[in-house]
Task: structure prediction
Amino acid sequence: MIDRRQLLGTAAGTLALPAFAQKRPVRIGYVSPQSGPLSAFSEADKYVTAQFRKAAAAKGLSVDVVVKDSQSSPNRAADVARELIVRDKVHLILVASTPETTNPVCTIAEAEEVPVISSVAPWQPWFVGQQGNPGNPASWAPFDWVYHFFWGLEDNVAVFLNLWKNVAGNKSVGALWPNDGDGNAWAGSAGLPGPAKTAGYRLTDPGRYQNLSDDFSAQINAFKKNDVEIITGIPIPPDFTTFWTQASQQGLRPKLVSIAKALLFPESVAALGRLGHNLTCEVYWAPQFPFTSSLTGESCAELAADFTRAAGRAWTQPVGFTHALFEVAADVVRRASDPTRRPALAEAIAATKLDTVVGNIRWGRDNVPPFARKNVAKTPLVGGQWRRKADGRFDLVIVENGNSPNIPLGGTLELLR
Result:
């Protein structure tokens, strides 16, 4: 990750017409990792941006959307943020998918006083990772221009711990944490080690590894040596495929695997074949969620089905959050006193109270610590398990909803052995 000082050092309802009479289109920039190892997060981008343009045109809302690819690189994310601000002269930026993309974009935009709506990164690596001194909480300060909605590490940790209650055994957990924004956050004071220890688990942490590693023998041997029965982590999809394939070849057989990020996508799980059966992950959006889009009026099930028809492939969790980014953008443009003025857009973002396809979005709630409350809005999270069907395809079954009981269960947890 590139921290805030490095970046700044290198830098030079239903959709309706806004009350303000626009003299020119509102220019919206959108940044996501459309290529590179994080590209699975952006597979819904073309569908959602086309859907947004269609809805905006139907309602007479004058908007231009400029799409940029971060290429899964923090440096590139910073570059395209500057392009959007300086060359494309956008009024508002939307950004999604992992701190490697969200943080550089938000850091540049905060410095240049351009409003941003951000999502699909746990709030701690997003907020803390942008601070001038991430290691000194006393120095952390809120932002004036950038706003984020998603869940936090505490929510994912709670989901995983609730899953692990079903595992009778030695309570030995192996951690697979990369040397990136997510991995360092999970391994840190706001991540898993403290809650796991409090709950009685013994953690084996072999240390950070580099993304796109091709040999996980050191981690596998450490897990076998310590008789690990549960494996967790937050690798990128290709790294988990490598790790889990090598683990099977080397005789590592845990009772449960709970992996964040890498197991979000049906293609990533399908690539594992039979090794993907009964792996567990966090679920932040699914057709079963009981929410409705303020942009199109679709339920989660309808949105997922429409995406599948349009894209010719299975729904994926980022469909909901990419859609919600544009929901919030449309609502902000509608409410802003002058949507072609950046300060007016930032003011409208801060005042958002919107029911979306991922739940209610509102900043300032007390379910976020005071230091981040201005800039972070939390959304629900549950736990899921991938089940391989006879035809080789996978279903993601919701098996844990302890913190969000309004989201229905689809089955009960099954162990690997």
About this structure: Confidence is low (pLDDT under 50) at residues 1-22. The longest helix spans residues 318-335. The two ends are 37 Å apart (CA to CA).
